[in-house]
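Hypothesis: this fold can be encoded by more than one sequence.
Test: take the structure tokens below, design a sequence, compare later.
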């Protein structure tokens, strides 16, 4: 199970930190990550954190967003800084299987609104 939290409304230029609490897994996934979606648009990949600690970001968020993980809490984070209206979306946490970075399970999402 993946449960996101931390979304909300913020003014442009502000910051938010999203959390994704994972539970019920008996293995360490190959990667976890974040995507976002605006109604009527396709889901857009935002960031990935691999099991070995590597990270990857979409160009649109590089330098502003940071993905991290607290292994003791089994929680993935997305620190979002210098937010713009274009970042407004539903943000989803996702996890992959054990052997490859292919997201196969998604949380319910948390809404981020930037005005």
């Amino acid at each position: 199970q993946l449960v996101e939290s931390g979304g909300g409304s913020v003014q442009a230029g502000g910051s938010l930190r999203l959390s994704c609490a994972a539970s019920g897994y008996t293995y360490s996934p190959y990667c976890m990550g974040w995507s976002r979606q605006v109604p009527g648009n396709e889901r857009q990949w935002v960031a990935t954190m691999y099991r070995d600690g590597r990270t990857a970001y979409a160009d649109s968020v590089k330098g502003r967003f940071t993905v991290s993980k607290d292994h003791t809490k089994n929680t993935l984070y997305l620190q979002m800084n210098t937010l713009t209206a274009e970042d407004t979306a539903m943000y989803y946490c996702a996890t992959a299987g054990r052997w490859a970075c292919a997201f196969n399970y998604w949380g319910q999402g948390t809404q981020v609104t930037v005005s």
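The chain has no helices and eleven strands. The chain has a mean pLDDT of 95.
Hypothesis status: open.
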